[in-house]
Please model this.
Amino acid sequence: MRGILVSLCLVGFLIAPAHAVQPDEILKDPVAEARARQLSTQLRCLVCQNESIDDSNAPLAKDLRLLVRERITAGDSDAQVKAFLVARYGEFVLLRPPITLRTLALYGAPFAALAIGGFFLWRRSRKEVAPAAVEALSGAEKELLANILNRKDGT
Amino acid sequence: MTVELGHFALVLALAVSALQVALPWLGARRGDPVLMGLADRAAGLQFLLVGLAFACLTAAYVGSDFSVRNVYENSHSLKPLVYRISGVWGNHEGSLLLWVLILALSGAAVAAFGQGIPMRLRALTLSVQASVAVAFLLFMLLTSNPFDRIAPPPFEGRDLNPLLQDFGLAVHPPLLYVGYVGLSIAFSFAVAALIEGRVDAAWARFARPWILAAWIFLTLGIAMGSYWAYYELGWGGWWFWDPVENASLMPWLAATALLHSAIVMEKRGALKVWTILLAIIAFSLSLLGTFIVRSGVLTSVHSFASDPARGVVILGILCFFIGGSLALFAWRAPLLRQGGLFAPVSREGALVFNNLFLSASCLAVLVGTLYPLALEAWDGSKISVGPPFFNLVFIPLTLPLVLAMPFGQQLAWKRGDLAAVAQRLSVAIGIALVATAYAFAMRGGVAPLAPIGIGVGLFVLLGSLSEIVTRASRSGGGVGSTLRKALRLPISAWGAAIAHAGVGVMILGVAATAYETERIANVRMGETIDLGAYQLTLKDIQQREGPNYRDTVALFEVRRGGVLEAAVEPAKRIYPARQMPTTEVARMTRGFGQVYVALGETVAESAVPVRAYWKPFVLFIWLGPLLMALGGLLSLMERRMRVGAPAPARAVRA
Model:
C-alpha cells in the first residue's frame, strides 16, 4: 500500500510539477480564502511524503484544496472541515495528530524528558557543593606535562 | 581500466581498515607502541586508497563512461562539467563513497594533527574509526558497488535528477557529510575512552576542536540545504520538517549540546559521563540520518534509491554501532569518575540548562520523525506528523533556550550573579521590549508569535554582543579605549558572541516571514500586479535552449513607485532526458529582502500563472547560520595551536 502511495505521489510529481495553489482555485472572498490557506497547511496531501496540500503539486492535493474551499463556501467552520476530511480519509490527513492516548507519547516524551532531567538536576544541585576530587597525576603524566610546558617556553 | 583500479583500491581500503581495527587495538592492550603506531599509517593509507577510488569514479563521470552502471544511470554527456562532477555524489552509491571518503579523511586528520594526543587514546580512536569504515566499505562493496559495469554499454546516460542539477546541491552534500561524518571522530574518541575506562578534562580538550569543526560544517550544510529548498523547490518555504531535514537537524542539536557540555568538561571537569554519552548519541543520530535517507523508509527527494535490502543492511550497521556503543557505555560508564558539582546560577549551570533543552528539542524531533513508523508497526494505524506538530512542540522547547543564552554567556564560572547580568543586559532587554510593543501596535493582524519573535531575536542579537561591550568597558575609559580593548579580547570571545548573535539574526529572519506579501495570480501579457511596494509587469514569454534543457521564460519588469528596479525571469524548465519539468524561481534581492517569483502550472501563449512574494529580511534566515559558522571558525582559530595538543598556557590558567 505504501509503495502504491509513494509511486502515485511520484507520478503526480512528474506530471504536475508546478506548485500548490493555482490562481483559478482562489476564492473571491479574501477572508474565506485566508481560512482555506490556513487550513490547507494543516492537511496532508495523502499520496505525498509529508507535504501539506498547500505545498503539494499532486492532482489529489488540488482536489482536496477545492474540497476545502467547497466546504468553507458551504458555511462549515474550520473544525467541521477537518472533521469532514477525517471522516473521509482518517486521521492520516491531519498533519498535527489530535492528542489521544495513542499519541500521548508523541506529545509527552520531550516534556517528560525535560521534567525528569530537570528534577534530576534539581536534586543534584541541592547536594552540598563539594570541591571536585582532583585526580592526582601519574608519574608519566607529570613528565609529559613538564615536557609540554618546556616546549612552550622554548618556542 | 581506471574503473577497475577504483574498484581494486576500494577492496584494498577495506583490507587496510580491517588491519587498522585489529592491530592498534591489540597494541593498546599489550602496550606495544609499534602496533599502536601502525594506526597513523593505516589511517593515512586508507584515506589515499579511498581517495583514489573516488578519483576514479569522478574520472568515469567526467569522461561520461556509460559502461559504468552508476554513470549511465546518473549522468549525461551534455551535462555541464560541474554537474557531471557533482553527479558523483548525487546518487546512492556515489554518496556512500563520499561518505566513506570523508570518514577516511577524518581518521587521517586525527593521525596527522593529533600527535599531541596520548598514543593509547589515539590508537584506540583510530581503531574505532576504522571499524566504522569496515562496515561501510563492506556495505558498499557487497550491495552498492559504484564500479559495476553494464554490457553492452549504452550510448547515452539517463541524466541526473534535474532537481539536483544545481550549484547549491553540488556543494550541499559534501558540506553536510563532513559535518555528519566529522562527528564520527567524537564518537571514536568517546568509545576509545570507554574502552580505556578513563576519561578526564584533557579528553574534552582533545575532542573539542573536532566536534567544533564537524559542527561548523553541519551548520553550513543544513543552511545550504535550506536555501536550496527555498529557491529550487519553488514554493517559497525554507524548512518543511521533512524527515530528511529532521535527520540533519537531530545531529546538529546533539552536536550543539555536545559542543557546550565539552566546555564544561574541559573547564570544570564535570559532565564527563554525559559528554561521552552525547558524543555517542550525536554520531548515532548521524547514522540514523544516513539510514533514513538511504533506506527509503521515508522517501523524499533525497532518497535516490529505495531498496529495502540495502535498508536492512544499513539497519544492521546502525544496530551494531549504536547498540554496541551504548552497551559499552552502560558497562563502562560506572567506572568513570563523576565529579564537579556546581551551583545552578553559574556558567556551568547555564550550560547544563542549554543541554537539557537541546536534548529535549532533539528528542521532540526524533519522536516526531519516527512516531508514525512506530505506531504503524504497533497497531497498523496511520497518522501524520508534520509542520504544525513540530511548530507547536519545538518552539516552546527552544524559546527558553534562546532566552537564557545571553544570560549564560555572561554568567561567571562557579558562582554567577544573575542580577548583575540582568543589569548588563538591560539595554538589550529594553530595546527588545520596545520593538515587540511597536510590532504589536503596528500590525495587529499578524500571528502574535511574530512580534514576540522580533523581540526575542533582537534580545539574543544584542545580548550576545553585549558580552563584548561588557568585557571591553570593564575598567572604564572612553569609546576609543573600549574599542581597542574589544579588539584585543580573545578571539574565542568574539567567536562565541558572533555565533550566538547569529541565532538572533536567524530568529529575526524567521519572524519576518510573517510580514511577507504573497500574490497568486494569472498574469496576462502587459498586465501589472502589485506586490507590497513593488509592481510586476509581464513583458514577454520566451523559449530558450540550455545545454541539456529547454526553458519557457516569463519576463517581468519590477518597478517601485514607477521606477524600474530590475527584470526578473522565472522559468519552467524541462530536461528531455528524463522528461522532468522543474520550476526556476527568479529572485531580486533588495537589502536583506527578496522579491520571489515562481511560475505556475500552465503557461499559455499570452498569460502565466504566478506565485510572487515580497519577503522582507528573508536572507537573515541563512545569514544567521553563516554567522554561527563564522563564530565557530573564530573559536577554532584560537584553538588552532592545540588541535589535539593542549595549549600549555591555557592548561596552567585553567
